[in-house]
């Protein structure tokens, strides 16, 4: 039976979102979480697929701006809430939604689309590359010291109720937005996301706790975390589950991690989302007792290759011609000459000149924010060097001084 793909209507949201929840297992989100996503949904940027009266496909796109190397914020569709009913899977419904969505994103004039994937294998076929990664860490905190600089002793730490500290924490967070490529400019309403704390999602851990860090009377950092009480044979061995540590002063950052690793009756500290070059890894006395794993985080798609490549700066001078393959968005296909450096901006225009490097739009997405290097991708056979020297030149230029990072999901 033919299905109908169209923009979501206000009256359909509840049913539509329920079908999304079902595709993720069918456990309804807590009312406060559902309510927030109801407010954040951009209806005119959301799609539903209908089989008669039944909703069988969902997809949304938040109107984000993403920080890129050089500090600019680039308009990006934040692809989200993607699902297809299990009764209708593998018959092209996702492909239809991705087709319509990328055409829409192009029409909205947004050079990028970004997403976090439930499974990394889904989106490569639509031109997404893994543009940021994240580190997860599990610290044996009884065996690991946090070797904080002396300045950390001047930092004052205080417990504050999460809600009471929310505004202060948000202003610290806002000072960090844009310090790494991959961060999202804050849109109204999103400041509520880190405060969500549904009891059913705690898995036996405490309600969210907050400690703020002050230096010279000013709030310069905060940590939000849960403690999960555990004991074995009468010995307490609880786990600290870190949701977020943010600071604008290195001393405060170190003081907060020293605090988290020193809470009485706890033995493990876990954090699920850190930049891969997080300073924490240089603060700990024994990195081997910190189980660090790296995962994909934000997947990036260049919807308009020329605009996207012009929007960032390049670590070192670069002048290369790319031969770009993009079967799903053929308007990007062909040769582009990119010339730019760290300060003067960049130009990326169509050219008839011979190509120096051949790759697909997926590799450009992986390298765009400075995460994967073009050399690394060439090692996997995914970038071909056609002019000797072009690969090293472009690879260094595409780098970022700090690893790109997405601080929160969407
Ligand atoms: C940004 C986000 O929201 S991520 C969340 C994604 N949603 C989920 O994971 C919820 C549960 N899963 C689902 O809802 C669905 O299985 C989806 C959305 C992942 C796929 O929807 P479908 O309509 O079945 O995909 P569709 O039929 O268009 O598949 C297109 C191609 O992708 C492949 N594909 C689809 N899903 C997957 C997957 N999970 N892993 C690997 N390949 C996949 C298909 O095999 C097909 O390949 P082909 O073109 O070579 O034949």
UniProtKB/TrEMBL annotation:
The entry's acetyl-CoA-binding residues are 82-84, 90-95, 118-119
Q: Supply the InterPro entries for this chain.
A: Acetyltransf_17, Acetyltransferase_Eis, Acyl_CoA_acyltransferase, Eis_dom, GNAT_dom, NAcTrfase_Eis, SCP2_sterol-bd_dom_sf
Q: Does the keyword Phosphoprotein apply?
A: no
The record's section on Pfam families has: Acetyltransf_17, Acetyltransf_9, SCP2_2
Record flagged with keyword Cytoplasm = no
The UniProt entry annotates the active site at 123 (proton donor), 410 (proton acceptor)
Which PROSITE patterns is this protein grouped with? GNAT (PS51186)
PANTHER family xrefs: N-ACETYLTRANSFERASE EIS
Instruction: Identify its protein family.
Output: Belongs to the acetyltransferase Eis family.
Q: What is this protein called?
A: GNAT family N-acetyltransferase
């Amino acid at each position: 039976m033919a299905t109908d793909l169209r923009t979501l209507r206000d009256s359909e949201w509840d049913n539509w979102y329920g079908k999304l929840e079902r595709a993720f297992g069918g456990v309804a989100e807590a009312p406060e979480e559902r309510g927030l996503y109801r407010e954040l949904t951009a209806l005119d940027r959301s799609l539903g697929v209908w089989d008669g009266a039944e909703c069988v496909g969902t997809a949304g796109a938040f109107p984000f701006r993403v920080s890129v190397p050089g500090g600019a914020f680039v308009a990006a569709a934040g692809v989200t809430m993607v699902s297809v009913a299990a009764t209708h899977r593998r018959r092209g419904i996702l492909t239809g939604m991705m087709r319509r969505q990328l055409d829409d994103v192009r029409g909205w004039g947004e050079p990028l689309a970004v997403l976090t994937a439930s499974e990394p294998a889904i989106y490569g076929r639509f031109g997404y590359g893994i543009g940021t990664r994240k580190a997860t860490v599990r610290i044996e905190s009884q065996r690991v010291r946090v070797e904080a600089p002396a300045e950390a002793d001047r930092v004052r730490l205080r417990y504050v109720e999460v809600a009471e500290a929310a505004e202060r924490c948000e202003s610290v967070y806002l000072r960090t937005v844009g310090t790494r490529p991959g961060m999202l400019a804050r849109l109204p309403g999103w400041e509520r996301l880190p405060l969500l704390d549904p009891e059913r999602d705690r898995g036996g851990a405490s309600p969210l706790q907050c400690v703020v860090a002050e230096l010279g009377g000013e709030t310069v950092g905060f940590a939000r975390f849960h403690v999960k009480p555990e004991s074995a044979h009468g010995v307490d061995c609880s786990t600290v589950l870190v949701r977020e540590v943010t600071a604008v002063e290195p001393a405060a950052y170190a003081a907060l991690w020293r605090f988290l690793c020193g809470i009485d009756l706890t033995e493990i500290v876990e954090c699920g989302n850190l930049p891969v070059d997080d300073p924490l890894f240089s603060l700990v006395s024994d990195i081997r007792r910190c189980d660090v794993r790296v995962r994909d985080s934000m997947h990036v798609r260049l919807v308009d290759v020329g605009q996207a490549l012009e929007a960032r700066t390049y670590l070192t001078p670069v002048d290369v011609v790319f031969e770009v393959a993009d079967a799903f968005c053929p308007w990007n296909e062909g040769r582009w000459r990119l010339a730019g450096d760290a300060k003067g901006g960049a130009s990326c225009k169509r050219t008839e000149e011979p190509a120096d490097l051949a790759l697909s739009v997926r590799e450009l997405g992986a390298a765009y924010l400075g995460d994967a290097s073009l050399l690394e991708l060439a090692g996997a056979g995914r970038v071909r060097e056609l002019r000797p020297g072009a690969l090293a030149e472009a690879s260094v230029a595409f780098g970022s001084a700090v690893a790109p990072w997405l601080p929160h999901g969407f």
